[in-house]
C-alpha cells in the first residue's frame, strides 16, 4: 500500500478526492478501518497493482531514455541532485 493510502495525517476529504475516481475505475478498494469506522482504508486492487507495475515500467523506460546521453556518473549525479531538491525540509510532495 502506498503512503497515500496509509494512515497519513491528510484530511478524509483529500483521501476521498484521490481514491474516489480510482475506486470507480476498479484500481482501489475502500472499506471502513477496523477499530475506527469513521475512517476509510484504501487498498490497491489486483488491477491497481497491475496498473502501478505498468506505470513504473513505463516511467523507468522514459527515465533511461532521458538520461541516455549522460555518462552513468552524470546520470547518477542528476538523480541525486533532483532527489535532494524534492526531499529537502519544506518541500511539498504530493
What layout of secondary structure does this protein have?
Elements: H1 12-24, E1 28-33, E2 36-44, H2 46-67, H3 72-87
Antiparallel strand pairs: 1-2
Compact description:
Strands 1-2 form a two-stranded antiparallel ribbon. Helix content is 54%, strand content 16%.
Radius of gyration: 17 Å
Strand adjacency order, main sheet: 1-2
Structural class: alpha+beta
Largest sheet, if any? Answer: 2 strands, antiparallel
Total count of strands? 2
CATH architecture: Orthogonal Bundle
Low confidence ranges: 1-15
Tell me, what's the shape? elongated
- Please, how many domains? 1
CATH topology value? Arc Repressor Mutant, subunit A
Rounded to the nearest angstrom, the distance between the terminal CA atoms is: 16 Å
How many helical stretches? 3
Strand-and-helix sequence, N→C? HEEHH
Mean pLDDT: 79
CATH homologous superfamily designation: Winged helix-like DNA-binding domain superfamily/Winged helix DNA-binding domain
Strand content: 15-25%
Fraction of helical residues? 40-55%
CATH class: Mainly Alpha
Tell me what the structure shows.
There is one protein chain. Strands 1-2 form a two-stranded antiparallel ribbon. With 94 residues, the chain is of the alpha+beta class. It is built from three helices and two strands. Helices cover 54% and strands 16% of the residues. The longest helix has 22 residues, at 46-67. It has one domain: Winged helix-like DNA-binding domain superfamily/Winged helix DNA-binding domain (Arc Repressor Mutant, subunit A). The relative contact order is 0.09.
Amino acid at each position: 500500500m502506498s503512503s497515500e493510502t496509509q494512515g497519513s495525517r491528510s484530511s478524509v476529504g483529500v483521501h476521498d478526492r484521490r481514491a474516489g475516481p480510482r475506486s470507480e475505475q476498479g484500481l482501489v478498494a475502500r472499506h471502513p478501518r477496523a477499530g475506527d469506522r469513521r475512517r476509510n482504508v484504501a487498498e490497491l486492487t489486483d488491477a491497481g497493482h497491475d496498473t502501478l507495475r505498468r506505470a513504473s515500467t513505463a516511467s523507468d523506460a522514459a527515465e533511461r531514455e532521458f538520461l541516455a546521453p549522460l555518462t552513468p556518473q552524470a546520470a547518477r549525479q542528476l538523480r541525486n541532485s533532483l532527489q535532494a531538491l524534492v526531499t529537502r525540509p519544506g518541500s511539498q510532495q504530493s
